[in-house]
TrEMBL record:
Name used for this protein in its record: Cytochrome P450
Residues that, per the record, bind heme: 394
Record-linked SUPFAM superfamilies: Cytochrome P450
Family assignment from sequence similarity: Belongs to the cytochrome P450 family.
Origin organism lineage: Bacteria, Bacillati, Bacillota, Bacilli, Bacillales
Length: 473
């Protein structure tokens, strides 16, 4: 018996509804069935995939029979043939030489950079002075990715680079879901702004490549150093253009998604006082132990201790997954779980909709980090998949999770973030990743209760004083 159901609305109404509100369209389509046919043309039939077992077929079990197709073609305008856009053997080759950049020992070193950059930001915040929280998080994660991946200090260039990233993301998102894709060479206002933004990003990228070639020893522990040391099957070094493509990929995919997730986390904590209180108690307990022991925790040690902070990020990624939609296309006919899909089929998978399954999560619309305390026991493999899956799953998922947790913990130890009044509820904006529409102005409020201390104070406190102020266990 087929598990494919036809959507009841017309093709025209589907098109306009999706263009107007893609997230609402996908959430409404979720209860219709495991696989929902949009009744598009027979030349390129399109399906929404709602069932975890079909998601596993597409992303893992039959991934070699599918490609990213249209979405990769649009992204290629900005990032070239990097890991995010490469197909099949080229993708497998690139993933092999990029994987060492995300080995555990490297991630542990990256953790120290995350804390340093976040504390630098915390020192710059003024109690009670509103900030555009999306811009602040974007510049923070951009600085982190530049230091960890490229061994590059951005300093005064952060704002300009973050603006360039914003331009490329907005234009890319509008192009991916446009019914007609205009050639990138056409001098439309959008294309011209996009090309200027790319030149801005390339200025940083090629500058870093040149500096690394002049002084390779200084870049040995970075992704850029790894790329400079990599050779192909014939022993030839990677061309600068390929290094550029991988660096552009990491710039766009490696910081904007984390920044967006953090903005949603601050917003969700503000709206859920119980969760915010539990996070504060965990942070205070960790710092109290640090003062009692009289030694500074490493970034990796701190990450392991911040269990509830990790659950906060995981729950944020459930409700507001940056990768809100995953697209795949088949060149030939495909058999999946008893159903036959014709050649040139397109598949749209929405973690945003699937993560809202009441059958799996119960109170699915509620922000409740505690649901992760049991280790997601009993959930189907692809009931929750914020980082995708299969060989095309996010190569930096462990780094991204660590980074988000340490940023959250470091800032939440010193500040609560409160929305400026009058903004109303946050509305998701589905671009290349999921943002708050229009951004969010938030006020950092310095914490005064709970005995929380800064990392520097905890590290410098005399051991006997720390012992006096700690509670017996």
């Amino acid at each position: 018996m087929t598990r494919i159901v036809d959507i009841p609305s017309s093709r025209v109404s589907n098109f306009f509804r999706f263009q107007r509100d893609p997230l609402g369209f996908l959430v409404d389509a979720f209860p219709l069935g495991d696989v929902v046919s949009l009744r598009t043309s027979s030349f390129q039939p399109t399906y929404i995939i709602n069932s975890p077992d079909f998601v596993q077929e597409i992303l893992v079990l039959q991934e070699d029979k599918l490609r990213k197709g249209r979405s990769a073609g649009v992204l290629r305008r900005t990032i070239g043939d990097g890991l995010l856009t490469a197909e099949r053997e080229a993708h497998r080759h690139q993933k092999r030489y990029l994987t060492p950049a995300f080995y555990k020992e490297r991630i542990n070193r990256y953790a120290e950079v995350v804390i340093e950059e976040t504390e630098r930001l915390a020192d710059s915040l003024t109690d009670g002075a509103p900030v555009p929280i999306h811009d602040v998080m974007m510049q923070l994660t951009l600085g982190i990715i530049a230091r960890t991946m490229f061994h590059t200090e951005l300093a005064r260039d952060k704002a300009a680079l973050a603006d360039a990233v914003d331009v490329t993301i907005r234009h890319t998102a509008s192009t991916i879901f446009s019914p007609v894709i205009l050639p990138f060479g056409w001098p439309t206002p959008g294309n011209l702004a996009h090309r200027r933004a790319i030149r801005t990003l390339e200025g940083m990228v090629y500058g870093a490549i040149g500096a690394a070639r002049r002084n390779p020893g200084a870049y040995a522990d970075s992704l850029l150093g790894l790329l400079l040391d990599t050779t192909d099957e014939d022993g030839r070094p990677i061309a600068d253009t390929e290094i550029r493509d991988q660096m552009m990929t990491m710039l766009l995919a490696g910081h904007e998604t984390t920044a967006n997730a953090l903005v949603w986390a601050w917003y969700s904590l503000e709206r859920t006082p119980d969760a915010a209180g539990k996070l504060r108690r965990e942070l205070d307990a960790v710092r109290m132990r640090e003062r009692r022991d009289g030694e500074r925790r490493t970034g990796s040690d701190l990450y392991r201790e911040l269990t509830y902070a990790r659950h906060v990020i995981q729950e944020t990624l459930r409700l507001y997954p940056p990768a809100w939609a995953i697209l795949r296309e088949s060149a030939s006919g495909l058999d999946m779980l008893g159903d036959r899909f014709p050649e040139r089929s397109s598949f749209l998978i929405s973690p945003y909709a699937i993560h809202r399954s009441k059958a799996v999560f119960g109170d699915a619309e509620a922000f409740r980090p505690g649901r992760f305390e049991d280790g997601a026991a009993g959930w189907a493999r692809f009931a929750y998949f914020p980082f995708g899956g299969g060989t095309r799953g996010c190569i930096g998922s462990q780094f991204a999770l660590m980074e988000a947790v340490l940023i959250l913990g470091t800032l939440a130890e010193r500040f609560d973030f409160v929305s400026v009044p009058g903004q109303g509820d946050a509305v998701p904006e589905p671009l290349v990743s999921l943002r708050i529409k229009g951004g969010r102005m938030m006020i950092p409020r310095r914490r005064t209760a709970g005995g929380s201390v800064s990392r520097a104070a905890a590290a410098s406190a005399p051991a006997e004083e720390a012992a006096d102020e700690s509670s017996p266990e």
